[in-house]
Design brief:
The chain is an alpha+beta fold. The protein has one domain. Helix content is 30%, strand content 20%. It contains seven helices and eight strands; from the N terminus they run H-E-E-H-E-E-E-H-E-E-E-H-H-H-H. Strands 2-1-3 form a three-stranded antiparallel beta sheet. Strand 6 and strand 7 form a beta hairpin. The longest helix is centred in the last third of the chain and has 24 residues.
Length: 207
């Protein structure tokens, strides 16, 4: 199994979900068992390496990647955080719209306990789905590009430029693939799509 090949630590994703839904961080047999036992609508998942603390990240042939995290707070705690760059296309080219970051709810632990909740340490999405199906946001974990929050991230101009370039390239890649999946009449090329993703549940929704 892919999780075992990654040293027992992995991230499993439903490729078609959003707002942090359908993302499972696996760092123990208990978390893997919960994922395997949960009901899943789709057949295919993305399994990738988990980037956690330096002592408990996934391992591959190139070694181990880990979160540097935010700058330590007064209690010496660091948090996993992501940097989000929103871009827009204009006749003159791409332009940045906004830049912000989000941090995880719990600090990165140096060692994992058997009952550790890895998602609380690695999940940075602010959206929370309630039992009634409604949504709320944990805005206290939002890091804005102001003097206070920006300094906590420990990133410089080079990192901001790299994030902007990555956002533009990702947008272009999505647009290019989407255009290839449509024929001249604007219809989905089913055979090509199926060769890239043969998830029966998804195909049933699309076709």
């Amino acid at each position: 199994m892919q999780v075992e090949r990654l040293g027992g630590h992995a991230v499993v994703k439903v490729p078609y979900s959003n707002a942090g839904q359908g993302v499972y961080t696996i760092t123990s047999k208990a978390e893997l068992t919960r994922f395997m036992g949960a009901p899943h609508h789709y057949d295919r998942f993305v399994v990738q390496g988990l980037i956690g603390n330096s002592a408990w990240s996934s391992e591959d042939l190139e070694g181990r990647l880990f979160h540097v995290g935010t700058l330590p707070d007064r209690r010496g705690r660091i948090f996993a955080a992501d940097l989000r760059v929103m871009v827009m296309s204009t006749p003159a080219g791409f332009r940045p719209v906004s830049i912000y970051a989000r941090r995880a709810a719990a600090p990165l632990a140096e060692r994992l306990a058997p009952d550790s909740n890895s998602w609380s340490m690695l999940g940075t999405n602010l959206s929370v789905k309630g039992a009634d199906g409604g949504w709320s946001a944990e805005a206290d974990r939002l890091l804005m590009m102001d003097t206070r929050d920006f300094n906590r991230l420990g990133v410089g101009l080079d990192s901001l430029i790299e994030a902007y370039v990555q956002a533009v390239l990702a947008t272009l890649a999505i647009d290019n693939l989407s255009s290839r999946l449509l024929n001249t009449k604007g219809k989905l090329r089913r055979r090509l799509f199926r060769s890239l993703n043969d998830d029966r549940a998804l195909l049933a929704e699309l076709c």
